Input
Amino acid sequence: MHPFSYDPFQQRAIETIDRGTSLFVAAPTGAGKTVIADYVIEQALARYQQVIYTAPVKALSNQKFRDFSARHGDEVGIMTGDVTLNPSAALLIMTTEIYRNTLLEDPARLARCAWVIFDEVHYLDDPERGTVWEEAILFTPSHINLLALSATIPNVDELATWIRQVHEREVAVIVETQRPVPLHTLFQCQNKMLASANALKHEGYRNREEWPRQWSGRNRVRHRRHDRAGQERWTVHPNRLDHLIEHLRATERLPCILFTFGRRRTEELAWEASRLPLIHPEEQAQLRRLFRELCERYQLTRDPTAQALSQLIDRGVAYHHAGMLPTVKEVVERCFVSRLVKFIVTTETFALGINMPARSVVIDTLKKRVEGHVDLIRSRQFLQMAGRAGRRGMDEAGYVYLRIQPTMISYYDVMRVIRGQPELVQSRWNTAYATLLNLYRRHGRGLLSIFPKTFYAFQTSGRRREAGLALMERKLDLLEAVGYLGVEGLTERGEFASWLYGYELLLTELHTQGHLDRLDAPSLAVLLASVVYEPRPGLRMPKSTTIGRRLEHLCEEPMGRIHRLERQFGIRPVSKSPAFQLSPGMEAWFHGAAFVRLNRLCEVDEGEIVRYFRMTVQLLRQLAEAPAAEDALRRKATLAISRINRDVIDAEQQLRLG
Output
């Protein structure tokens, strides 16, 4: 099936699949796990069976749709919430949320499905979305085999044992620790290129484990004297990016991905890197032509970001982050895949499975800001980023460079990140109200018998396990208190809420009070945008519109009541409050404004606007399809979708453009 011979671990996986046995494969990034997924797909399609492929991020789902469509044509479909193409296809790519929702709402749709592939299954550990992965595995019916693919994790056997117990089926485990392309870790410290941890300790840290934390900027040199004679001096030489790039060029270690942890930082570093021309005139001409053709295809010839990027592209440099338009990111990704872009600066989401081949990876820092404080990145994050270096069939080795400032991080912490065992995958079980409602429809209070089958219950004992079950019980008690549960199933209110994953309580309360029915279509769009939107810290509130002020006032009473009930029932975290920063932009967009106007109306990056407007469309679709919604409300939701889902917001259009 592939033009190369299989590695031993791939061959063992294929033999397991041929026996019809579920399988968990853990291997380093770049080791060739995708080959195993390809084999499952080929076998299922040859037998006229359906196979589901789930991925953690929509960018990866879109890439897989293109890759599989090129190979299998009309047999491929995709459902990601904001994109639905060929939903009855034999090979169906889904986000894990859509797969989970299908299992709960309409499991009969999966009657001919033989396999489900969980790519990047260690996402089960994600604090926000891990519950969805756990539920998706838990509720997969017995006739569907599971292929779980993961980066190297230490508790793969624990996860496999849980799946065996839950499904009462055989689950084989294959662990591969070797990469076909070896990785070499190097350091930039004191503006020197250091080839080993010993060199880092001796020349970078000057044989000291930890330096004084007096560094106040990235590009300053600080001194500290411990006695009047000045016998001991602490000196830090800044790590210059041009020095690093010259080294990569001289050692033929381009193309390179530089990972950093801030959107603005990606752009700053890319412009700094562009001072050095990295491509030959012939390559420059090819890259210009490719960039221009892609911008024309995606209608970006007048886009300001694309125009600015063209100057970087001319130098063989680019940047990529979540604040950019999806179509601009698409252009950058395709240029990088060509290997004509030699140096790309990006945030860590670029490391999540998207096939972007590079010879080298640079990690700007081993610390990042998380929930208001700066902390070390996890070893698993490091391995995920480092694994982008060195691609099979292209490179003999991959190179990972860490930019180290001794006054920012101790030598011990550096070693802890790069040599530590990857963190255990831990259950994040915290079932959504909508999940409980859908389970209650079928099982009543008997749904609590599901809890002992969860990975959370498998991993915990004693008080922790009791607390997990108690939280489910309290959520059911709250749903009963607000009138969503009846003696024989769900009430009308409960049926309505069961379609609105993540936004159940506020929207159902507004609907019960008649407010949703009284809203016109633009107000409904603004409301749902505020419900899905999560503002970044420090974002200023734009000048309120009449609609925004009215809706904010409308939400105050039910939201306050919901929070009081959740605190009363001991439920944490409480439901998210609506945030109205996007209201002026959504209102203008609904009435036909050009996209370039929206940045002036709300202080949000273009990519974020697109993301949250697409999430609004997804929630509007849930309303339009909700059986318990009135016809008038469904019509308003459908109208709102038609007004919002245009131009750059239309995710299907981006896929159709190829």
Observations:
- The longest strand covers residues 183-189.
- The chain has 27 helices and 19 strands.
